[in-house]
Design brief:
Blueprint (H helix, E strand, L loop, with lengths): L22 H14 L12 H15 L4 E2 L4 E2 H18 L5 H9 L7 H4 L4
Antiparallel strand pairs: 1-2
Helix pairs in contact: 1-3, 2-3
């Protein structure tokens, strides 16, 4: 045989992914892991609806003309992607939950307000 054969039908074509465009996303993940939280902290957040709200906040800022998130010093789009990735991962973990119920849980999570936060406007 003069030529090898490799069956790639139905396999993911990772070569299509623009890895260089993911650098800002990885930087956002790194800032979160190193300076704000801990590596992979996002996996342990009980109510992932906070990430849905994060998507919407960053998207609103971006559409409002603010390209860079001042806290992360990266594009709001990179923050949107991070939050979306967290939700994709979470949904994969909860495939046994009917999607309507999953979505309801995302949009009705409890607000976490500490006593300290409640008094900052006094």
């Amino acid at each position: 045989m003069s030529e090898g054969i490799k069956d790639s039908k139905g396999k993911l074509r990772w070569s299509l992914l623009p890895f260089e465009a993911l650098a800002p996303v990885v930087r956002v993940l790194d800032v979160g892991a190193v300076t704000k939280y801990a590596p992979n902290n996002w996996k342990y957040v009980e109510d992932k609806g906070a990430y849905l709200d994060g998507i919407m906040r960053h998207w609103e800022k971006y559409l409002g003309g603010e390209e860079i998130d001042v806290e992360m010093d990266e594009s709001h789009l990179a923050c949107v992607i991070c939050n979306a990735l967290f939700l994709i991962w979470d949904r994969q973990q909860k495939q046994d939950v009917e999607f309507g119920k999953y979505l309801e849980d995302l949009t009705t999570y409890p607000d976490y307000v500490t006593d300290l936060d409640m008094h900052k406007f006094d």
